[in-house]
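Work Package 3 committed the consortium to producing structural models of liganded targets before the mid-term review. Because experimental data for this complex are still outstanding, the team generated a predictive model from sequence and the ligand definition alone, so that downstream docking and mutagenesis planning could proceed in parallel. The input record is reproduced below exactly as it was submitted to the modelling pipeline, together with the SMILES string for adenosine-5'-diphosphate.
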Amino acid sequence: MNDDFVPAHPQDPGLDPAQDAGSHADAILKVEDVSKIYRSGDTEVHAVSSATMAVDQGEFVALLGPSGSGKTTLISMIGGLLSPTTGSITLAGTDVAALSKRELTAFRAERVGFVFQAANLVPFLTARENLLYVSTLQKRISRKEAHARADQLLEELGLAARAKNVPEQLSGGERQRVAIGRALMNDPDLILVDEPTAALDTKLGRQVVELLAREIKQRGKTGIMVTHDLRMVEYTDRVFEILDGHLTHVEQPSALAH
Amino acid sequence: MMLALNEIRRGRGRFASIIAALSLIVFLVLTLAALADGLFFGATGAVRSTNATAYAFSPDAKGSLIRSSMTPEQVREVSSDPGVATASGVGVLLTAGTAPSGEYDVAVFGVQPDGAGVPTTLTDGRLPQPGENGTAAIDQELAYEGVAIGDSITVGTQSAEVVGVVRDSSYQLQPTVWTSLDTWRAMRNEVRPEFTGVTDDVNAVAIITDSGVTAEQVQSEVGDLTVLSAEATGLAIPGVEQQSSTLNSIIYTALAVAALVVALFFALVVLEKRELFAALKALGTSTRKLGAGVVLQAIIASAIGVVIGALASRGLGAIVPDEVPTLFRTETLITISIFTLVAGVVGAAFSLRRIARIDPATAIGGTL
Ligand SMILES: Nc1ncnc2c1ncn2[C@@H]1O[C@H](COP(=O)(O)OP(=O)(O)O)[C@@H](O)[C@H]1O
Ligand SMILES: [Mg+2]
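The resulting structure, written out as tokens with the ligand in place, is given here.
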């Protein structure tokens, strides 16, 4: 439903994404001419068409578009959850589309941090254990380091007092903060966030996105946040707009200010 | 593993139900098995707890000790066959015997003390000696009933003094009295007057085969006699085979039910956790790891079920009356524990395909 989607101001068309990508030669993430077609029976859905974009190391960008425009499909391909029908995706030198299913599992564990729409925490693990769990899926960070890292993240996210609580004892905002901590836990190259505020009210939503932006900036991480809510883009560096599967503009958040 | 263990620890209520179901099944299975073993040993102990590895019967006896009848010549013939180390006559009499403590239904076995078919399960006293008449070793059942060493057991006018106790040697659920062939024959001739004057017959021949020689190999040497292994002799006792196959099929059915219960439980658990499993896969958990977690949970639930079921079954065993023939064998417990664990793993394995099919891509987004 497009209710709260406000399209970009026509008087400020921004940049063409393909052209913009050309000027980011050292980008950590390169999406080149990526398309995704869902086929079921005779019908084809062109969820993403010839998307080209580049994101620099340390950038936190937004992917903005109305519901059904292909945002989730695009970041799922970037995060190794879906394979593109055509095109290539390169993250820090790794050709994501070329990885096998097994390699993709390891790729997601070590190189990508996900924050889902609903926090999707493990209900029978405490906040701290939810963070530690993902560290068991990789080998770069030792057990001891992981414990220190989990405690530090919980502290930074204002969850130190809630570390021993299971998700059902946490508020919606707290859960989403745990999910952010979990995404940062394995020190990934890229953090992908899909509509993180969908389940939260506006005020809480802004707090969560602000915290997310701060964590990503502080750690020099690269992040992409999917949203259909124009009010959330002010915490990002750049905004990619998507409509009907096509990336249309790249803007400065300030150009979209209401 | 962290997931699997914590889920059981924090979600005890749910796992309590599967553990309770498995405990009940294991309890049922072990109790039935104890009954089956009790009946089986009660019926066949006399041919299983001796040094004989095979028995030879007269051609028309169909492997039945009671129906069989043999002459001393036949016993000698069997002894001289290749593959036979020792062969000696065995006599059986089902009758009532009187001791100071009461009258009992007994099976009197006449055996040659230095021959074959002699009990190997002496628990107290001694066995009758070669050439010694008028003495007997009794089954432990009789000792439980109050017959003691030094008492005499009388059949008709013939008595034997109790000199020892053996265990697990019942025959057709009757406790046995082991005596010399002559004493047995004297008792038999009192009870069955038609044998009056017969002084050298036996019912069957107990055989100790040379090592590595089977009952079938001996059979091929003895012409028209029937030779059965000790095991097969037990099964040939009327009713024994039917009884154990009935009880065994109930036991196998119950174990299949255990596998089914586990399969259904984990099918439900996995169905309920589709979303979580998709998210865990998206975070980089392999299908193998998720599957191993489910199998581990099944093993833990089955193992706890086995322990509780075994304790409950032993508890029941301690309070059932002595007339109910139950026998709790460690061997049976181990077998059934392993079967239950296997049933649990097999049941859980049905969920593995379902777990493999969960698409991690469904974890993210969802069109608003
Ligand atoms: N698994 C799928 N099978 C078929 N069509 C799909 C599937 N997932 C998404 N789509 C379609 O692809 C388009 C883009 O969906 P999506 O990427 O979820 O959009 P957004 O996240 O921007 O709301 C929509 O038309 C949607 O219906
Ligand atoms: Mg979406």
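Reviewers should note the following from the model. The CA atoms of residues 31 and 89 of chain A lie 5 Å apart. These observations will guide the Year 2 experiments.
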